[in-house]
Design brief:
Strand content: 25-35%
Shape: globular
Mean pLDDT: 83
Helix content: 10-25%
Number of strands: 30
Largest sheet: 9 strands, antiparallel
CATH topology of the largest domain: 2-enoyl-CoA Hydratase, Chain A, domain 1
Number of domains: 3
CATH architecture of the largest domain: Alpha-Beta Complex
Radius of gyration: 27 Å
CATH class of the largest domain: Alpha Beta
Number of helices: 9
Structural class: alpha+beta
Strand order of the largest sheet: 27-26-25-24-23-22-30-29-28
Length: 488
């Protein structure tokens, strides 16, 4: 934040400064060096607080290196465009951050944040200008990469008003500057592929806070690449579906909803042993559009890469695919870091596992009569077979006595998917409060005592007793939330 304490107010009339940086950060002017950073593919590095004039200092270095190929790993399009500027800055001038973003964009230069480095506030705005141009039908692509252990953070402009100066003129000046700062961000967002939802998050985060991008869903939606990361050994059905969903979400600037399904998924091997996966449908309107993705696997002994792992596209819209996009939406970016960036790590496991611990009420119904209604704990384990794209979910309901009721879903038996209650085949029923009058009355009475006015309850018939076992979650859970939590 720019220092505008009384001892520094030496100008008249009073001027106002718009800064984007962490409040309390000491202002140390940015330094720009041509020291290479090969892991992130940078020919230049900017560190320190961004101030007026930094864009012009950076311009001759960028213009000299914009056709640089010094960090290319090969002669194909996956390693092309690996010419970036590395950032390590707490922020500074918003207007200068916008100018740097446009400078990168106009010269088709990428941006990066390395291991242990931070790019916050105005720096994050500058970072979003990273771009590369390719001499093929993919044309321009965002080229902005963050190391899994780097930080990229956004917040709203911090308006510096001289202490104690709150007269009408000062307030009007403050308003004009604030409006201009927002206009500058919105104008830039249209020019440099700064997603609308990210701009909304940024402007909605108070200046004293910081919104850090830390999940795969956020990075993929806002087209911020993450690398180098632990990479899968091959392209699986789950990896293909997940990558395609991330591509689809980024195209429409929408958050993750569910794992897509397709009437047909196929694979083939291309040159240099790379994978080509195709989903016949499952995307865009009515799920009628397909998706194709390629994946070029690393081999033991290779270096970690901060370049794409393949190409993908829905309809004719071709984009780069990065290895991190094969991971689920709620995976923390930091968990994907390599122990040593110079040594690739290959994930050979083809099973994803997620555990949850929930609280609610376990209920046993005989028709509409309530036989049991006790608080209980739900221990849920979800295992996704990435090859078959089959999820096996095990729910263990623990009663106050310590007794357990076990429900399994996604069990494959004789080629079909079934559910089991305590080892016996059963059928799941989901009752919403408005769908079934007899059960609605029961659910409403129990839910109201819990303070839950919009209950969602899942029930399973018990083949051995003829009763129905039900679980009511302790918190209000609407339909959308339920299915989002299930698919994630």
């Amino acid at each position: 934040m720019t220092d505008i304490s009384p001892s520094h107010r030496l100008w008249k009339p009073i001027s106002l400064v718009v800064a984007l940086c962490l409040p309390g950060t000491s202002a140390q002017a940015a330094t720009i060096s041509t020291q290479p950073e090969p892991v992130m593919g940078c020919f230049a590095q900017l560190s320190g607080t961004i101030e007026k004039g930094d864009a012009e200092k950076l311009r001759p270095i960028i213009e000299k290196n914009r056709y640089s190929t010094q960090f290319q790993d090969g002669d194909d399009d996956l390693s092309a465009g690996k010419a970036r500027v590395c950032f390590d800055s707490p922020g500074g001038s918003l207007i200068e951050g916008v100018a740097i973003a446009k400078l990168l964009h106009d010269n088709r230069i990428g941006s990066a944040v390395g291991r242990g480095k931070s790019c916050l506030s105005a720096c994050a705005v500058a970072f979003m200008g990273g771009l590369s141009s390719y001499e093929n039908d993919m044309a321009d692509q965002p080229n902005r990469v963050v190391h899994p252990l780097g930080k990229l953070g956004f917040h709203a402009p911090d308006l510096g008003v001289p202490q104690g100066e709150y007269d009408e003129t000062t307030v009007k000046q403050a308003y004009v500057v604030a409006v201009k700062s927002v206009a500058a961000v919105l104008d830039m967002s249209l020019e440099v592929n700064f997603p609308t939802s990210l701009a909304t998050v940024m402007l909605g985060t108070p200046a004293q806070d910081m919104y850090l991008i830390d999940t795969v869903d956020e990075a993929a939606r806002w087209r911020v690449a993450i690398g180098p990361v632990v990479e899968p050994e091959r392209l699986t059905k789950a990896g293909l579906a997940t990558s395609c969903a991330h591509i689809d979400n980024a195209a429409d600037d929408k958050a993750w909803y569910s794992m897509p399904s397709s009437s047909e998924i196929s694979f083939e091997r291309g040159y240099n042993d790379h994978w080509i996966g195709t989903m016949q449908d499952g995307f865009q309107q009515e799920g009628a559009t397909g998706c194709t993705a390629t994946f070029h696997p690393l081999k033991p002994g290779d270096k970690g890469r901060s370049t794409p792992s393949g190409f993908g596209g829905i309809q004719a819209n071709g984009v780069h695919i990065w290895a991190y996009q094969t991971y689920g939406p709620d995976v923390k970016i930091a968990s994907l870091a390599l122990a040593d960036d110079s040594q690739a790590e290959i994930r050979t496991s083809t099973t994803r596992q997620r555990s949850q611990l929930l609280t609610g009420r376990c209920i046993v119904l005989d028709g509409t009569a309530v036989l049991d209604n006790d608080p209980c704990t739900l221990s849920r384990t979800q295992k996704l077979d990435e090859i078959a794209l089959n999820e096996h979910q095990t729910d263990v309901f623990i009663w106050p006595s310590g007794a357990k009721t076990v429900v399994e879903s996604g069990v494959i038996d004789s080629g079909k998917y079934i559910n089991r209650l305590n080892g016996l085949e059963t059928k799941e029923e989901v009752f919403f409060s408005k769908d079934d009058v007899p059960h609605r009355n029961i659910i409403d009475r129990i839910a109201q005592k819990m303070g839950n006015n919009d209950p969602l309850i899942a029930c399973w018939a018990n083949p051995s007793s003829g009763n129905r076992f039900c679980y009511l979650d302790a918190k209000t859970l609407n339909t959308t939330d339920y299915f989002q939590s299930y698919y994630q």
